């Protein structure tokens, strides 16, 4: 895929890089990945599950294929899409670093709140 960018009257052609994060950014593509993860399926089977045109589904499949999350196998007149989920490990690794960060922050907050809730001595004030 090529992206055309105009900068000060000059045309700069840049190749747009598709990655796994772009693939999972769309809820339809996430749903397609979920479907295909169970078993290889053809375009018609996928399209039946969504309220959109077959052309729109084909575009989602193209993006998923370009992101290396799907492979296409031609069997006669039928094209079967099969999941290649190894690339999702990039997402897992990225999310994991933030999971560790937030776990640490939440543990510190828990300790702080527990210290704040320690019983305090009650003082009887004369009436």
Automatic annotation (TrEMBL):
InterPro entries per the UniProt record, alphabetical: ArsR-like_HTH (IPR011991), HTH_ArsR_DNA-bd_dom (IPR001845), WH-like_DNA-bd_sf (IPR036388), WH_DNA-bd_sf (IPR036390)
Residue ranges of every copy of the HTH arsR-type domain listed in the record: 9-103
Gene3D superfamilies, per database record: Winged helix-like DNA-binding domain superfamily/Winged helix DNA-binding domain
Pfam families to which the protein is assigned, alphabetical: HTH_20 (PF12840)
A GO MF label: DNA-binding transcription factor activity
Protein's recorded name: Winged helix-turn-helix transcriptional regulator
